Amino acid sequence: MYQTNQMEQFSMAYVAAIAAHAGCNQGSWKVDEDSIDVSLRMDGLHDAKYSSGQIDLQLKCTKRLDAKENEYSFPLSLKNYNDLRAPVIVPRILVVVVVPARIEEWILQSRESLCLKHCGYWKSLAAAPSSENKDSISIKIPSQNIFSSGSLREMMRRMADGEAL
After folding, report:
1. What is the pLDDT along the chain (165 residues), one digit of tens a residue?
2. Distance between CA atoms of 95 and 89, rounded to whole angstroms?
3. For residue 73, which phi and psi values (nearest 5 degrees)?
């Protein structure tokens, strides 16, 4: 298997682990026409305006993110950028999973634990401005936007209350 395919599969596994821990149901699409790799749904949001929430995710995996101050820079194809900024009913986010350069370091496993390395970061591009670029655009992702079970539950609650992500 090509390493790019392994990176894609690893990012799916990372999101699946976070979603399971957060209590979300995961669905995927056979064809990625509109930059959606995974849909996550959470039911039982009784303290929200609506009792369930859904978020669509575009997944990317990289061996490095360029760090500046309190944000990371990631090159995103213009097609993905435009799909993710389009007005939609179900919110869409970009999730960038960062892995070590060497595949042997992606996981640590023992009898007590399975550790997936390194981390995933998320960014909503809703209502982002159009771009004059032809191929790609550099996305700025705040370093505090860690894609965790806590941040996912909070996104679901906000979505179920009709708030922007």
Report:
1. 899 999 999 999 999 999 999 999 999 888 878 899 999 999 988 888 888 999 999 999 999 888 888 999 999 999 999 999 999 999 999 999 999 999 999 999 999 999 999 999 999 999 999 999 999 999 999 999 999 999 999 999 999 998 988
2. 19
3. -110, 130
Q: How far apart are the first and last CA of the chain?
A: 35
Report pTM: 0.95
Rounded Cα distance between 96 and 93, Å, is 10
In contact, 36 and 58? CB cutoff 8 Å: yes
Helices (H), 23-130: 78-85
